[in-house]
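User: Design a sequence. Structure:
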């Protein structure tokens, strides 16, 4: 954190943000396997946090441990479950298909384990995983930041990051993704920390709770 704070604080606008918000508390390693994290991401698509957690908890009840707070079903177990049992968790047809696709991709090695992912670059992981149904670049970027503890991820398509940067720099409009990528390149290799500060700035003044993933 010290090195990232030094680099970010070299920018006067970011120095003011760091002084106001305090040290970055980014949780870069949530202890999950990529397979588990992708299933959780699919369960939460287009849903608020509480609803997403409830659906994912029901899915975990179908796992080998039959525990709402345990891991989700293993790939083989998930593929053996009936459509009716999966839909009973609250999963839509599209999410059901996406989860089955991720399970099959784990079995055939497309979805790596944590140890396998350690030898892959960010872009290699993105290129491989976005080929899966229901998995976009943003989802893989969140996996990189919050599961695999990658320090240099800048999710330029994320509205909160773009809005935070707009406020930090006093811009009239949020920057386009390409412009944001160019403007923040100088903060490499600590752009994950920068993204975290952008999220915090975007949430300032809001009465709602911060996003449970990016907080």
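Assistant: Done.
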């Amino acid at each position: 954190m010290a090195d990232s704070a030094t680099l970010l604080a070299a920018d006067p606008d970011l120095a003011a943000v760091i002084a106001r918000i305090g040290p970055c508390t980014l949780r870069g390693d949530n202890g999950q396997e990529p397979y588990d994290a992708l299933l959780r991401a699919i369960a939460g698509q287009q849903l608020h946090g509480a609803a997403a957690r409830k659906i994912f908890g029901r899915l975990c009840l179908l796992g080998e441990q039959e525990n709402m707070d345990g891991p989700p079903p293993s790939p083989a177990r998930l593929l053996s479950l009936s459509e009716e049992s999966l839909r009973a968790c609250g999963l839509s047809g599209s999410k059901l298909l996406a989860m089955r696709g991720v399970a099959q991709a784990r079995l055939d090695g497309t979805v790596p384990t944590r140890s396998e992912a350690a030898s892959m670059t960010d872009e290699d992981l993105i290129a491989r995983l976005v080929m899966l149904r229901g998995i976009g670049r943003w989802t893989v970027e969140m996996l990189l930041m919050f599961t695999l503890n990658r320090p240099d991820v800048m999710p330029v398509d994320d509205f909160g990051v773009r809005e935070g940067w707009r406020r930090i720099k006093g811009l009239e409009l949020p920057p386009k993704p390409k412009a944001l990528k160019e403007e923040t390149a100088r903060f490499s290799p600590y752009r994950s920390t920068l993204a975290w500060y952008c999220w915090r700035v975007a949430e300032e003044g809001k009465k709602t709770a911060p996003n449970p993933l990016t907080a």
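The radius of gyration is 18 Å. The chain has two domains: 2-27+154-203, 34-146.
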